[in-house]
Amino acid sequence: MDYMIGVDIGTTSVKTVLYDTQGKMQGYSNNLYPLYQDVPDMAEEDPEEIFSAIIDGLTTVLRKADLKDGQLHGVSFSAAMHSLILLDENHKPLTRAITWADNRAVKYADELRENGVGKQLYEKTGTPIHPMTPLSKLIWLRNDQPDLFKQARWFVGIKEYVIYKLFGVMQEDYSIANATGLFNIFNMDWDDQALEVAGITRDQLPKLVDTTDQISGMKADYAGVIGIDPNTPFIMGASDGPLANLGVDAIDPGVVAVTIGTSGAVRVVTDKPKIDPKGRVFCYYLSKDHWVVGGPVNNGGIVFRWVRDQLFAPEKITAEQMKVDSYDLLTEIASKVPAGSDGLIFHPFLGGERAPIWDANARGSFFGLTRTHSRAHMVRAALEGIVYNLYTVMLALEEVVGKPKSIQATGGFARSALWRQMLADIFEQDVTIPESPEGTALGAATLGMYALGLIDDLATVKNFIGVANVHHPNPDTFEAYRTLVPIYIRLSRQLQSEYKNIAEFQRKHPQQDNTASKEE
Q: Boundaries of each Carbohydrate kinase FGGY C-terminal domain copy (predicted)?
């Protein structure tokens, strides 16, 4: 038996998955780390904690598998997009990893959007202007922390830092580079205008390589700890969104991948770069002839967690005592409420929002509350609001790539039959849930197999995944959702004029964030 490992460096954990070359999972490790939110809008991680989680994950999986020499063909990486670490001339971190969820660059992102430069850059980079991007973060650091900015010799993401620590080479794949806002998707190189706006030079960024590029020669100390042949090839891999499409077999035209994990996304693959004239969706590289167009949302499962912790704390305790999943208990409560939550609408913008409104100042709200609404209505409205928002992303995406032919859905939400059915009902499309629970890691492993010549075509992933569930839309819900979704969209537009005002008030009067940051 031959094997491949996919390593998925996520926002809250590293998932390390061992696959055989038939795509079957043969080993798994999930190593958590905290998200640091010391001040308003901060969202950072310790790169050393992430690196340790990767070492621990590889060590655990390989020790349990006890493979023979030559059975492990390679390791392939996925990583969350938009992270930024400043390194000194000795490649030592000057900062923690500033993640996509960090909104401290909001002022400078707003300026780029307002002065027209942002539109020019989006049309070349395919990356919407938002404080999530390294482009915006670099402008913020240059202006607000100039001494720190001047100390930096290198500007990298978490994957590049890990690669350097393991192999001593400084390089970045096209897919991760694509998400920085600094990469021109039409000439496949760092963009001169973006670099000038950011205030950095080419030699401060890693060498660009394809997602199928291979590295070997791991430093002996790390190879010894992990228990791996130092000459085992490591494949650069891509960013997590495009690899999630690959891992759920959503790479054919018109096949849409919908993901709801901590955050969420709607994505579809095209054979060449495509730009939205309205700037609502991204365009990211996966591999030659595979570009992923879509929109990410900040507010997925993290909203469900907020509902559980803040509105259903007693039920959470009860579930723990009964040894049942607290989320299952909440979805059971929500299932008693009819579709549309009796006219209660929730905008799930608890952490600002990316697609389709790209407003880091966006804030959440319940609309339509009456005395007859209960907490059960509120939890159902929250779940529906998350899907409403994903549906608005789909509407924007349709203008760029056309109507979807089918939907492949994955992420933590897929454990909930109620949530899966909501997706089918609101989108009015059949929703297929692939059997593989770790689509992104499988995407990384599949890309690795392709890079190593173990498979001839990325489409081979069809043979790797089964179908766990198919949900058909229920026509009984159409009237409610067709009425409420337009209200949801109109409200989003009307409220947007006040988001900045309320966000500025909250920044001046910050509250302590008591939410758990390390929970999956």
A: 257-452
Closest CA to 285 of 188, 356, 193, 400: 188
Supply the pLDDT for residue 11. Answer: 85
**Residues 6 or more apart whose Cβ sits within 8 Å of residue 224:** none
Whether CATH 3.30.420.40 fits 1-240: yes
pTM above 0.70, yes or no: yes
Rg (CA), the chain: 22
Question: In CATH, what is the architecture of 299-391+475-505?
Answer: 2-Layer Sandwich (3.30)
- Bigger pLDDT: 438 vs 398: 398
The candidate with the shortest Cα–Cα distance to 493, out of 347, 298, 297, 368, is 347
- Closest alpha carbon to 500 in 353, 368, 305, 310: 353
| Alpha-carbon gap, residue 409 to 468, rounded angstroms | 11
Domain ranges of the chain: 1-240, 299-391+475-505
How many CB atoms sit inside 10 A of residue 306's CB?
17
Copy the structure tokens of residue 380: 């159902």
Tell me the per-residue pLDDT of 159-202, one tens digit each, with 9 for 90 and over: 999 999 999 999 999 999 999 999 999 999 999 999 999 999 99
Q: Are 397 and 295 in contact (CB under 8 A)?
A: yes
